[in-house]
Amino acid sequence: MTASDLKSTTTLHNGIQMPWFGLGVFKVEEGSEVISSVKAAIRNGYRSIDTAAVYANETGVGQAIAEALQENGLAREELFVTSKVWNADLGYESTIAAYEASLAKLGLDYLDLYLIHWPVKGKYKEAWRALETLYKEGRVKAIGVSNFHIHHLEDVLKDAEIKPMVNQVELHPLLSQQELLSYCKEQNIQLEAWSPLMQGQLLDHPVLGEIASTHGKSVAQVILRWDLQHGIVTIPKSIKEHRIVENANVFDFTLTNEEMARIDALNENRRVGPDPDNFDF
Q: NADP-dependent oxidoreductase domain location, by residue (predicted)?
């Protein structure tokens, strides 16, 4: 991992450049809240924004992007925008329709990355076929999945013409997903972490606090640095500009091998979100 700043990218297996670091907008309210946080992120150098149909804030994200491009003199191609198809829309025709709906709300001509949000049994393979169609038609730059375990990925790969480029999953020091990370690296699928800070639950963790004080950094910065050093794309969420700036201030220090191992050892396979093998929505 050689991320040196917010514009540093990883190369997906189809050659597309994806920033290592971005802003997530899960649970960020539609309207002024999401508009101001996305604009603050872009103004402060972020180039990747991650939303989803079910977050119900794509319209605000789109407005923020349009305004930020103009205000900061950026071209659309300089941003990397991700959205996701919701469970109710999984299916061939319905996934393509959902993609159109997301594009319309975002006011964009294309997405950089489109993901299947959850592996709904019996539905995600048809949805994957739809994503392959969108990709082959050049309507989306990259396609992938979210919340897929190894067995879900293996199931998709049995019939897929195109391998997923990204798998976005819950990942943080108490759920370090080491087996999944190894599998994705073998398959050349980029792993991406959602809820990297465990929704704030890790910010007073003593081991992380000790490592943070060694570097004169916050616990959040240590966790996000740990992600990057493991070759994991990360998208912390914040609505406060000072926190958005602070989260991204992770390129001027390096965790030692020993510190990385200490953080790895915190794993408890503990989730804050649903288990992808056991959800009912």
A: 32-268
For every residue of 48-61, DSSP letters joined together read: EEE--GGGT-HHHH
Sequence spans of domains, the chain: 16-198+231-238
Q: What are the pLDDT digits (tens) for 103-136? A: 999 999 999 999 999 999 999 999 999 999 999 9
Q: Annotate 16-49 with b (16+ C-beta within 10 A) or e (fewer).
A: bebbbbbbbbbebebeeebbbbbbbbbebebbbb
Q: Which residues of the chain have pLDDT under 70?
A: 1-2
pTM of the complete model: 0.98
d(CA 82, CA 12): 14
Strands 9-11 and 17-19: antiparallel
Is residue 55 among the annotated active site residues?
Answer: yes
> Which CATH code fits 16-198+231-238?
3.20.20.100
Provide the token pair at 144. Answer: 């992938």
Distances in whole angstroms, Cα of residue 32 to Cα of each of 10, 258, 262? 31, 43, 40
Distances from the Cα of 236 to the Cαs of 140, 199, 223, 246, in angstroms?
A: 24, 9, 10, 11
175-189 pLDDT per residue, tens: 999 999 999 999 999
Classify 146 as helix, strand or coil: strand
Q: How many CA atoms lie within 13 A of 265 on its CB side?
A: 8
CA distance 266 to 238: 24
The active-site residue, picked from 55, 99, 114, 135, is 55
State the burial class of residue 126 (Cβ atoms within 10 Å of its Cβ: 0-12, 13-18, 19+). middle
